[in-house]
Each structure stands twice: as C-alpha cells, then as structure tokens.
Amino acid sequence: MPKPTSTPRRRRPLKEADVPGLAARRAALRLLDAVLRRGEPLETALHAATQGLTRGSDKGLAHAIAADVLRWLPDLDALIDTVTEQPIPPDVKSRMVLRMALVQILLLETPPHAAISTALPLTEGGPRRLVHGVLGSLIRAEAKLPEVPTLPADVTERWAGQWGIEMVSVAARALARRAPIDLSFADAAEAERITDMMGGTSLMPGHVRLDHDVSVPDLPGYTQGHWWVQDISASLPARLAGVGEGRIALDLCAAPGGKTMQLASAGWRVTALDKSAKRLERLAENLVRSGLGTQVEVAQGDALTWEPAAPADLILLDAPCSATGIFRRHPDVLYRAGPRQIAEMAELQGALLDRAAAWLKPGGMLIYATCSLERAEGEDQIAAFLASHPGFAVQPVQTEELPAGIAPTPEGFVRTLPGTLEELGGADGFFVARLVLNA
Ligand SMILES: C[S@@+](CC[C@H](N)C(=O)[O-])C[C@H]1O[C@@H](n2cnc3c(N)ncnc32)[C@H](O)[C@@H]1O
Predict the structure, then answer these.
(1) Residues with Cβ < 8 Å from 134, sequence gap 6 or more?
(2) What confidence score (pLDDT) does residue 1 get?
(3) Residues 399/228/49/98 CA torsion (nearest 10 deg)
(4) pLDDT at site 12
(5) Where does the record place the catalytic residues (predicted)?
(6) Rounded to the nearest whole angstrom, what is the distance from the C-alpha of residue 254 to the centroid of ligand 1?
(7) Which of 328, 319, 343 lies closest to 421, judged by CA?
(8) For the chain, how far is it from start to end, CA to CA, in angstroms?
(9) Domains in the chain: boundaries
(10) Which of 4, 144, 183, 380 lies 20 to 30 A from 352 at CA?
C-alpha cells in the first residue's frame, strides 16, 4: 500500500502584527522620512505617520525613536561607518533602519534582539545581512555614543559664525538633556501658592519650572486653565508689554495663543490674528480652558493683507521663523532650517513688520519676537527695520524686567542662547525687541 503523502504545510507569510513592536518602528521610519526627505516638522508629521497605531505607548515610542535619531544623527552615522568597508549612502533605507535600531539599543534601553528583529523586516528586500552584520558588530564591540551629541556640520558652521564656537558646544550639551517644562500662570499669586505643591521652582512671578517627565494633564490647575505650558524665553515678549489697563493690543501671529493669554491676563483687550484656521482652533480651546476668552477677539487672516478696525496701543509680532531656538524640544529644525528657509523667513518677517508699523497709535509699542538663533531673524531684522522706519526707537529692556540670569543686550534687546540659565535647565533661543513709535 502506498504511503500517504503528507501535503507540505506552507508557511504563512509573516504579518506586521506577528513581530511585536514592528508597527511602531515603521511609524518612526515614516516620521524620519517626512522630516529628512520632505522637510516636514516632526510634530506636524506625527499624526499621519502614526495613524493605525492604537496604543499611546506605540505612538510615544515612534516619536522617541525619531526624535533621538535626529538628536544623534552624525554620531550614529559615525558608529555605522566604523564597521562598514563601503560607506552606506546617506539617504538609503538601510542606513535609516540602522540609525533607528542603534538609538533603541544605545539610548532607549530596548533589548538588542528586539531592536534587531524589528529592524530587519523594515529593510524590505534591501541588504538584511548587511544590517544584521553592522548591528551585530557594533553590539559585540559594545559601541557607545559620546556623552554630548555632535551637531550637523552646517549648523555648527552657521552658529559658530554668528555666536562663536563655544556656543555650539553649549548647544550640543543642551541637545543631550531633556528640556524642563515651564508653566505660565494667568495669576502670579496662584503660581506662588502652588509652586511647592507641584514640586517646581519659580524663576519669575507667574512662572513655574518642572522636570521634563511630569504628566502635564495630571498637574493641579490644568482643567481649570490656571496655567499653560510655555518656555520661560517664550514668556518674555508679552511680559515686556506690561499691564494693559483695557488698552488695545494686536497679537498678529497669535496661535496657539500662549502670548494672547498672557496679554489678556495682564489686562489688554486683544485681537488675536492668525493665518492658520487649524492653529486657531487650538487657540480657541486654550481661551476656553483659561477662561480668558472674554478679553479676546479672534480673527483668521493673513497679516500681509488683513487690516485692523482701529490703530492699536500695542502690537505683538511673534513672527513665523526658522524656529532654530527650539532645537532641544524639536531637533528636526536642525535638518529643516537651512540658509534658504532662513532667508525666506527673514523676508516674510520684514514684510510683516512693515505692515505692523502702520497700525500703531503714536506712542504705541511694537514688540517683535522670534524663537530663532539666527541674527537675520533677530538683530539684523530690527536694524533694517529701524533704518527704514525713522519714527521708531528701541525702548530698552531693563534688567529688572527679566529673570535673574538673563540680561538685556547693550542695544536693549533680549537675546537668549543655549547657555542661558544652563545650570537651571536652560531656555529656548529667542530674540525680543521692544520698539516705540514716537508720538
Ligand atoms: C511663532 S508662531 C506663534 C506662536 C504664538 N504667538 C504663541 O505664543 O502661542 C507663528 C504663527 O504665525 C502664523 N502666521 C504665519 N504667517 C502668517 C501671516 N502671514 N499672517 C498671520 N499669521 C501668520 C502661523 O500660523 C503661526 O501660528
């Protein structure tokens, strides 16, 4: 009798769900592609890249992998290059997969087998053996990252040229640390009352600084809208406006509304303008949460074409910019903001300043701010504005108006750099100028 032949069982192809954690890594790969290839901001790309991830922890992991790759990219590449005979081209998927796996092993405490098993499927027909070999060699050699990351060469050159090479070392140190969380309070007395309860420190009235790992929605006062998250540097432009006493302020680039809320809580009657309907939705939510909406009129429009109903006592122009000052929290700016983007932003800022200049009452105040570490978007911008608008003068910022550890520049501006308040956790890079229109 012939033996029954057993039909060979065909292996089911592995699905995404069969490899635990693969979907999160694939999302991280999409995020990095969005930032490095398409020039999108990491936060903007997050929603689309993590669609389909149901667990918050997977979204968090995808974001953490992508952000750490951006923080350490030159150092990750240097490690990879130590164990390959032929350099892997900079923009191929296998290099990105290697960077991601190394970040997990060296920084995020992912067990090497988990980092490798989720890396290999991502190569998709690419050089799996090469990826496996590079990771194996680096693990055996107990490869390590330096204590302080290396900034991209073009950023190093640009910042060293403007601020000196020491600034670049300090910026690199800042990139290695997690930035603290700063809160701005509508009511300074409330900040004083709950600083200790929150386990924070206060660097100015109405300010509380907390560790980077607190859960913001769980903090006291979140649902009541007593405060909002705002880096100490970002809180300075509106502070320099002083109390409003019912006077009229135009906040020309207002969303998501951190500075609008500061102005409203200081007694200004604010018109908050922004071009972006989506960002204005967040501003509206913030106004509801803080209960400050009654002092604010919200308008959607482009400040290059929009016109105010009446001249203002104060104009705050927190202008769109390269955002290089917020590289600690948003390391994608190190790769997205180059000379072209900076020049385009500087042109837009100049045009916005020109518009704003025509809307002030005589004696009115114009506060210009950018979260940029580029002089073209700060000092140079204001020098050009003053040269072409002789009716304006600098109203110098005084030391007493700033937190201890931040001093005005000799010109009377505020310029925060990566070394600002370093021993207290640092501060975002910002430029602020306060100008007055002669009466
Ligand atoms: C630096 S952000 C403002 C942050 C805001 N002031 C805060 O404190 O929350 C710059 C804003 O400018 C807006 N913007 C860019 N170009 C604009 C324009 N031409 N007119 C009005 N708003 C503009 C952007 O939509 C963005 O919300």
Answers:
(1) 80, 83, 84, 98
(2) 41
(3) 50
(4) 56
(5) 371 (nucleophile)
(6) 5
(7) 328
(8) 112
(9) 16-140, 180-229, 233-437
(10) 183
- Residues forming the annotated binding site for S-adenosyl-L-methionine? 253-259, 274, 302, 318
180-229: what fold? Alpha-Beta Plaits (3.30.70)
Radius of gyration of the chain (CA): 25
Please state, in angstroms and rounded to a whole number, the distance separating the CA atoms of residues 221 and 194: 9
- Residue 7's pLDDT is 47
Tokens, residue 437: 């229109």
What CATH number has the domain spanning 16-140? 1.10.940.10
* Residues belonging to the active site: 371
Domain at 233-437: CATH code = 3.40.50.150
Query: What length does the chain have?
Result: 439
Q: 182 C-alpha vs ligand 1 centroid, how far in Å?
A: 21
pLDDT along the chain (439 residues), means of 10: 46 60 96 96 95 90 97 98 93 95 97 95 89 97 97 98 98 96 95 90 96 89 92 98 98 98 98 97 96 96 97 98 98 97 98 98 98 98 98 98 97 98 97 96
Pocket of ligand 1 (CB under 6 A): 253-259, 273-276, 279, 302-304, 318, 320
CA of 320 to the centre of ligand 1 (A): 5
CB 209 within 8 A of CB 219: no
